[in-house]
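Posting this for the archive.
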Amino acid sequence: MKAIGFKTSLPIEEEESFIEFEIEKPTPTQRDILVKILAISVNPVDFKVRKGSAKDKNLEVPKIIGWDACGVIDRIGDDVRNFKVGDVVYYSGDLNRQGCYAEYQLIDERLMGHKPDNLSFAEAAAMPLTLLTAWEIIFDRIRIGERDKGKSILIIGGAGGVGSIAIQIAKKLAGLKVIATASRPDSKNWCLNYGADVVVDHRNLIDEVRQAGFEHVDYILDFVDVNQYWEAFVQLIKPQGHIGSISDPTNEVNLRQLKSKSASFHWELMFTRSMFQTEDMGEQGNILNRAKKLFEDGILKSTLNTVLEGFDVANIKEAHQLLESGKTIGKTVILF
């Protein structure tokens, strides 16, 4: 099968930052499923892994990354219970296994869901990683529930991939008052179109939030850089509030600053369940299947914004360049 990967970590402009090659098509066993991929989505984790996983190395076999895909089931392992050949599925997958920059991929059935019927292949491929991340941080980490309806939530990076779906989940499912950050007219409009009640400029965060009528907020979700905004978070979080983050801080976070408010801090990594084979690993498949109905009922909508047609090195590189610019809105998908 055709695959695209890299042997060494290079700037995306370099000719061999990605290379095309042939590799044997894998065979599924046990609960694994072989998926023929129809579309993939590119996320910031992709370029972070590309930049860091083969520094000062020259791998014998190119590394295949990518953790967002939609495809059709080609073969199944003997122990697969919930899927059959021909089913169309969407999933994010496992950071420790071969990624989706390939024509076929093996995925544990517990990590996948049936594709929403009303979404195209590209629209579905845009969703798994960001959907699971936003869902887990809201419901599994902070554990927002029915009793919390009407409370306020500040979402840092509202027009990004995770922010776009987090706005919808927080507004439509959790019933929260959503404040999202964005600085450009197009990104502000994007946040409003996806359900944000208020959009504020992250460059003057404390004043903007307070001018919008919020002295403090019940929840803060950081999808950008916890170090950059930490002092603002400390001031804006309500006593007994909750802060959640997915970012990778370069400096230590001073949690002692939250003690007087008895505020809580939560990390979220969508790959934790698959990396550690947790007892509830199958919850990711359950979330994707619950989301299938939410998409079909029009409660949630895909955050797809850019489609590149054709599975080739040029499109992989273009997608990485777009994400590395830090200015993308919504999701970028490559349609095979």
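Residues 128-141 form the longest helix (14 residues). The chain has a mean pLDDT of 97.
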